[in-house]
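Practice problem: predict the structure.
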Amino acid sequence: MTLEQGKANLEVFADTLLELARADRNVLAVTSDSRGSGKLGPFGAALPDRIVEVGIAEQNLVGVAAGLASCGKTVFAVSPACFLTARALEQIKNDVAYSGNPVKVVGISAGVSYGALGSTHHSIHDLAALRAIHGIDVVVPADNFEAREAILAAARSPRPVYVRFGKRALPHVHAPGARFEIGKAIVAREGKDVAFVATGETVCQASMAAMELEKAGLSARVVSMHTVKPLDAEAVLAAARACRAMVTVEEHCVFGGLGEACAAVLMQAGVSIPFRIVGFPDEYTMTGSQLEIFGHYGISPEGLAKTARALLE
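Answer:
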């Protein structure tokens, strides 16, 4: 069994944003020299009066977006995640989250999508940084279905939302009929031996690991935790009660992200289960393509299956 191939979530984002803007003149895009990398060329060509280009100035980007949102506009602020959530963190905190301006902050080329450009261009800190700021939701879509639904939900939301996208074309991980809601995880696959609780582009790696384990007679549950904040604590607890071990998977450092959030839920509920956080350790990240980096750190079907088997033993 293989997963059906889709396209890059960024392309789905751009298509969905154009659809929203054509239906509502209050929908705007603000970019920091990111029209091309954000796949917003067609948006700019179709609606040139609805895209604001501030140049390579991420702090200005967020400030302009917050000002427009305060005037009733539905604003999507689009920029590479590594710069947006570092250079403009103070503006996201004060101008967006603390001020309650419902900007849709869109981090593109996130995680280790930039591959060989190295650690300076990786955003493996963003989930931890934004989880620590009150008043903003954090969403990391796993596939094309979640990408479209996340943008539609963000546009409707009265709250600030951070949505994170990578660059690679992704397989579909959800069956028809799946339902998306910010703050509610989706069980992409049922299982009773080990639970993979994953977010973003690692969900497909966990799904393929589940297929590998199935060949060995092991049953793996795959939970797409597309919303890292607010975390669906009930989904974490349900997975822990249904399975004998749990592995969290994220394209992020192991500090302050999905894994530690899930561990806190389990500890505070008094639930004991063999548990492992799979992400990037406290070291200078190796150089390579996204999938090469994934493989090096065990965020691959083979690596995750190996981790699961070790926990179950």
